[in-house]
C-alpha cells in the first residue's frame, strides 16, 4: 500500500535568516543574468549565443555518452570536452573571461544560499536511543577481505577480543554461510551479533538478529559502508564502532526484504541490477556501468518491468527501479545519498522511465523534477516482468529471483547498538523548491509553512 511521505514537515514559521538567504540567492541569480545580458550587449552577442548553445549541448552529450558505445560515445566525449573549451576561448577572445569567473562565483554563492534557506528538520533527526546493556557474550563475524583489508589494517579482531567479544574470521578463500554462523552463535548463548564486512553481509546478520531478538553491532569495515553512514558511525576508523561494546546506546530501525531476503540499504531492478550483475562490477564499477548502460537505456536488453502497488500498476516499462529501506534524501536516483531516518516504516521507491533524449536531458538536469522520475513511499511493492525471473541487486550483491518479486518493510524489526559518540550523525535541511524559494524571498509565502516535502507520494 502506498502511504503518504512520512517526511513531510510540520507547519512552522519561516524565520528571518531563511528569508535573507533566499533573497541573497535570488539577487545572485539576478546578477548573473544581468552580467550575461550586459556582456552580450556590450561585447559580443555572438559570444552570448555560443555560451547558451554550449549549455544546451552538454545534457545531450552526457546522454549520448551513457546510451551509446563505439564512435558515438567517442563523439559524445569529444563534445563534452570541446564545448567548454570552445566557450571559454570565445569568451577570452571577446574579453569576457572576467565576467565568466564572476558568474561562476555568484552561481556557487546562490547554491550555498539556497541550501541554507532550508530550515533544519526536527523530524529528520536520528531515531531515539536508550542506554544499551553491555553484552556478556558478544559474537562478531569479520570478513578480512572487505574494504580492502580493513579488518587487518585496523586490528579489529584483536581489539574486539580485548573487549571480551568472541570473534569469527571468515576464510580468505571459499564460501562461509554467514547466516548459519549467526544462528549457531545465538543458539550457544550470544546476546549480541556483530559484523565487520560489506552491506550484503551486514544484511544477513541483521536478519538473524531481528528474527532471534538480539541486538546487532555494525562495524564499518566494508567499501562503501552506506548502512554505517546512515547510522552515523565513524567510517574513517571502524575500530571506533567497537566502543558500543562498553559505552553504547540502542536504537530500533526498519529492515527491508525482497521476498525473504533482507536488505539494509536497497534492492535494484532493471538497469541498476544488470550493472551489478556483471562479473566485473566488483572490481570495476564505473567501467562496468559504461559498458552495460547503452543496451539497457535504449530498451534493447532486459525484461519489461511493471511496478505494482497491490493490484494497481504504478509504473509500466521503467528502465530502472530502486527500492530502499526508507527513502533517500533529495533527488538522488542512484542510492548514493543519505537517508534522513531508518525508522519511518516505509520503503522509498524510485522508478526511472526515459523515452527520449529530451526526457534524458531533463532527468540529468532537473533530477527530482523530471517527468521521467517516479517517486513514492510504500510499505510494500511488487515488481513483475515479462520473464520468469529477473536480476536483482540486493545491497550490491546480484541474485536472480522468480517473478513477481515482492518488496516489503518490517518496521522497527532490528535493534542496533551503536557508540554513544557518533561523528557521522546527520540532520539534513529540507530541500526548498525554487518556486517556494521565490515566494519566500518576496514575502509572498504563507508564514506558517516551512517547506514543501522533498518527495511526494506519487510521480514527481
Task: Tell me roughly what share of residues is in helical segments.
Answer: 25-40%
**How does the major sheet shape up?**
11 strands, mixed
Encode the helix/strand succession as letters. Answer: HHHHEEHHEHEHEHEEEHHEEEEHEEEEEH
Low-confidence stretches: 1-12, 120-124, 446-460
pLDDT averaged residue by residue: 78
- Global shape: globular
Report the β-strand fraction as a percent range. Answer: 15-25%
Q: Tally the helices: what do you get?
A: 13
Tally of DSSP β-strands: 17
Q: What is the CA-CA span between the terminal residues? A: 18 Å
CA radius of gyration: 25 Å
Structural class: alpha+beta
In words, what does this structure look like?
The protein has 13 helices and 17 strands. Strands 1, 2, 3, 4, 5, 6, 7, 9, 10, 14 and 17 form an eleven-stranded mixed β-sheet that branches. The N terminus and C terminus are likely disordered. It starts with 15 loop residues before the first helix and ends in a 19-residue tail after the last helix. The longest helix is centred in the N-terminal third of the chain and has 27 residues. With 460 residues, it is α+β, with helices and mostly antiparallel strands. It is globular.
Which structural traits does this protein have?
single chain; 460 residues; alpha+beta; disordered C terminus
Describe the structure concisely for a colleague.
The protein has 13 helices and 17 strands. By secondary structure, it is α+β, with helices and mostly antiparallel strands. Mean pLDDT is 78; it is low at 1-12, 120-124 and 446-460.
